[in-house]
Design a protein that fits this description.
The chain is an alpha/beta fold and 327 residues long. The protein is 35% helix and 18% strand. It folds into two domains: 186 residues, 3-Layer(aba) Sandwich (Isopropylmalate Dehydrogenase), CATH 3.40.718.10; 141 residues, 3-Layer(aba) Sandwich (Isopropylmalate Dehydrogenase), CATH 3.40.718. α7 crosses α8.
């Protein structure tokens, strides 16, 4: 039996709905079901001239070419492509809640998320940092790890959406050790790598230059790496971030852990633009996502590239099969 993958359509004013419509173009080795407002998806398909037929989801109905299975979640107000409306923020979160519920009950083997707009959700008076943090809170997971992947690169983050001034204080021995344990466990359990090799970046330029450019490497990072190496983990670092993305170093690892968002994702997005994905590690479910935003300027144009969504779905399928989650 093929796994069932739930895909949330994200911010209705963004490119998420039209990217989800394009899932009907491709034959995936899984059953896909998109969570979205039915009439909004029909209107967007008509606007773009997409030849796709929408069908109410049923686990017993076989897939058909050119047909997109749908679970209807109603909008709060009519959505216009390219125009954000805070009134629809509860709808965006309802999509996530429905997909998460299905993953927790075994209805779905994994969830894939199209992009949301953090600002408009906060404008609606709903505190929201991102998908990663939201799903962690909903699943009562004390710490998760954000990883972006594409091509032969896998880049995990020790800290996520923080102002740069707050990063050093957020990198504690406890949090770094937990991050590395989650990363190591999920590289084995969700990626099937028995003995993962992890490259670890330093925080400061030149990894602190022996303490002359910062001492976080000496005080925090190195002691954690030494402790976990003694337990059998293969960890290389702390490495200067400006040279760790060179081919000779990357060949020595299966993934990279960087200390803050732009330290690693700048290199990854340059190398994999349009085909990178986001994977949340440490959750009790499988969740992947696109690595781009809502692209309001492209919404409704039909020019948005579905490549990242396709790859996110394919990775979710691989992980679901590896985890034995097929339904």
């Amino acid at each position: 039996m093929a796994p069932v993958i739930a895909v949330t359509s994200g911010e209705p004013a963004g490119v998420g709905p039209e990217l989800c419509l394009r899932l009907a173009e491709k034959d995936f080795a899984a059953r896909l079901v998109v969570l979205a407002d039915r009439e909004m998806m029909r209107a967007r398909a008509a606007q773009l001239g997409f030849a796709v037929r929408l069908r109410e989801w049923s686990a017993t109905t076989p897939p058909e070419a050119g047909v997109l299975d749908l679970i209807h979640v109603p909008l709060r107000v009519t959505s216009v492509a390219g125009k954000l409306d805070p009134a629809n923020s509860p709808y965006v979160l309802a999509l996530l809640d429905r997909a998460l519920e299905g993953c927790q009950t075994g209805e779905f083997a994994a969830m894939v998320t199209a992009p949301v707009n953090k600002a408009v959700i906060n404008d609606a008076g709903i505190p929201f940092t991102g998908h990663t943090e939201y799903l962690a809170e909903k699943t009562h997971t004390p710490q998760v790890v954000m990883m972006l992947a594409g091509g032969n690169l896998r880049v995990a983050l020790a800290t996520t959406h923080l102002p740069l001034k707050d990063v050093p204080a957020a990198i504690t021995a406890e949090s770094l050790e937990t991050t590395l344990r989650i990363l190591h466990a999920d590289m084995r359990g969700k990626f099937g790598i028995d003995r993962p090799r992890i490259l670890v970046a330093g925080l400061n330029p030149h990894a602190g230059e022996g303490g002359y450019l910062g001492d976080e490497e000496i005080r925090v990072i190195t002691p954690v790496l030494e402790k976990l190496r003694a337990e059998g983990m293969t960890l290389l670092g702390p490495l200067p971030a400006d040279t760790m993305f060179t081919p000779p170093l990357l060949a020595q690892g299966d993934c990279v852990l960087v200390m803050y968002h732009d330290q690693g994702l700048t290199a990854l997005k340059y190398a994999t633009f349009g085909n990178g994905i986001n994977v949340t590690l440490g959750l009790p479910i499988i969740r992947t996502s696109v690595d781009h935003g809502t692209a309001l300027e492209l919404a409704g144009s039909g020019r948005a590239d579905p490549g990242s969504l396709f790859v996110a779905v394919e990775q979710a399928i691989v992980m679901a099969r590896l985890a034995g989650s097929c339904r």
